[in-house]
Design brief:
Elements: H1 3-15, E1 19-24, E2 38-44, H2 53-63, H3 65-69, E3 74-80, H4 82-87
Parallel strand pairs: 2-3
Antiparallel strand pairs: 1-2
Amino acid sequence: MSVADIIHAKLTEALAPVHLEVINESHMHHVPKNSETHFKVVIASAAFEGLRLIGRHRAVNAALADELVAGVHALSMHTYTPDEWQALEAVPSSPKCRG
C-alpha cells in the first residue's frame, strides 16, 4: 500500500470527510524519483465545525502521527468544513520548491 493510500485511509477513518484529496507532490521537490515524502491534503469534514485552523491541523496531524515520524517530510493541509468546501472556488496552488 502506498503512503498516499495509507494517508487516505487514516484520514477517512479518523475524520469521515465529505471530500478528501491526497496529492503526492514529491515530484516538485529535490527527492529521488517515485518518492512519497511531500503531500498536499485537501479535506472537508464536519469534524472541523467549530475548530480554528490550528485545531483542524492538530486533528490531521494526530491521525497521521506515525507517517509524520516515519518518512513524510512535508504535509500541506487545506482543511474545510462542508459548508466552506461548498463555497470554495479553488484550492490554493502549492508553491514551487526552493531547494
